[in-house]
Design goal:
Blueprint (H helix, E strand, L loop, with lengths): L1 H21 L3 H21 L3 H26 L11 H24 L17 H10 L2 H22 L10
């Protein structure tokens, strides 16, 4: 059952990733990319990494894709304003893609996959509870330092963006 779900998710991931590249409409391309992120989150769930699946959906499929959609809609891309790429750029893209494919094939041919040691396997390794225990026990000081850094960055951004009374916009 899990293996069939894995193959279905893999097929859907590859299909939607190919559609991202080959879609003519940029809005459709972004929507296919959102589908790709959701299927990758499904792979994370199959790997028992629920926290990564949730973060992937919230950050990438949520925030980043909304930003992409706003940029695409802001640019107002039309057929008549589209710049045609020269043939040299297309040839360079095909050569770069071919080199990347050759590198992938070479890496996978040399890769050795080790068997899973079932005696030391922990099925709770990717769960939120386990991650929280590690963060709050083993890495408490770095975790708190990062939170202070984020807080100071937010305060700095608010202070930089705040206008003084009587100040005019110079843009």
């Amino acid at each position: 059952m899990a293996q069939n779900l894995f193959y279905f998710l893999t097929f859907l991931t590859l299909l939607s990733a190919v559609m991202v590249v080959f879609s003519k409409n940029p809005i459709h391309s972004v929507l296919y990319l959102i589908l790709t992120f959701f299927t990758i989150s499904g792979h994370y769930v199959l790997l028992n990494a629920q926290f990564l699946a949730a973060v992937n959906i919230i950050v990438y499929a949520g925030a980043i894709m909304v930003l992409f959609l706003f940029v695409i809609m802001f640019l107002n891309l039309k057929k008549e304003s589209e710049v045609h790429k020269p043939n040299l750029a297309k040839v360079a893209a095909v050569i770069a893609g071919g080199v990347l494919l050759v590198i992938f094939v070479a890496v996978f041919r040399k890769a050795t996959f080790l068997p899973v040691d079932e005696t030391n396997f922990n099925s709770q390794i990717g769960m939120v509870k386990t991650l929280g225990q590690i963060l709050y026990k083993d890495f408490l000081v770095p975790f708190e330092l990062v939170s202070v850094l984020f807080l100071s960055a937010m305060v700095g951004a608010v202070m930089l963006g705040k206008k003084e009374e009587g100040e005019r916009n110079t843009f």
